[in-house]
Design a protein that fits this description.
Length: 171
């Protein structure tokens, strides 16, 4: 039989895994902000996908294509955010009900809407997600977590570009 110290030399991550498994959700400000960004990004992804499905009118092809590009980018981002939560030793939140509970994005109405209303709603939602990314950037900066801060800055850049495009459409 081997002692704990021998196990540690064989697998230095063994204790870390046991420690991480005992805490499902971290309470530190960086992980809390990551979980919020995860929930908000997931909600925005779903709403953008809904807009993609339901947009109609003379701008259909342009918006249908733009919304698809946006929700596909968000799908990748959600994975990156959840993996950062895991890299920090916590467990990513999940499940539609739980993520919806954590996000404060207003729901996108289902059904017929003018194209400009889909765009206006997604502008508001992107602004909220950008604010969540800014909160994460601040928390990560205070914790000297440059990797998470970099992720947050990258997310803000994506949302700023999306906002520019959506706002340009409404002009």
């Amino acid at each position: 039989m081997t002692s704990n110290s021998e196990n540690e030399s064989v697998n230095p991550y063994m204790n870390m895994a046991i420690k991480s498994a005992s805490t499902s959700v971290a309470v530190d400000p960086v992980t809390t902000a990551l979980q919020k960004l995860l929930a908000d990004s997931y909600a925005l992804m779903a709403q953008t996908h809904l807009a993609h499905w339901n947009v109609e009118g003379t701008d259909f092809f342009q918006l249908h294509t733009a919304f698809q590009s946006q929700y596909e980018e968000l799908f990748t981002a959600v994975d990156d955010i959840a993996e950062r939560v895991r890299a920090l030793g916590s467990y990513a939140e999940g499940g539609l009900d739980r993520l919806a509970e954590m996000s404060d994005l207003p729901a996108l109405p289902v059904g017929r809407l003018p194209a400009k209303d889909f765009v206006a709603h997604l502008i508001e939602a992107n602004e909220k997600v950008s604010a969540s990314a800014k909160a994460l950037e601040t928390a990560a900066g205070e914790a000297d977590d440059l990797e998470t801060q970099d992720l947050a800055i990258g997310r803000r850049q994506v949302h700023q570009k999306t906002l520019w495009m959506l706002n340009s459409f409404l002009k």
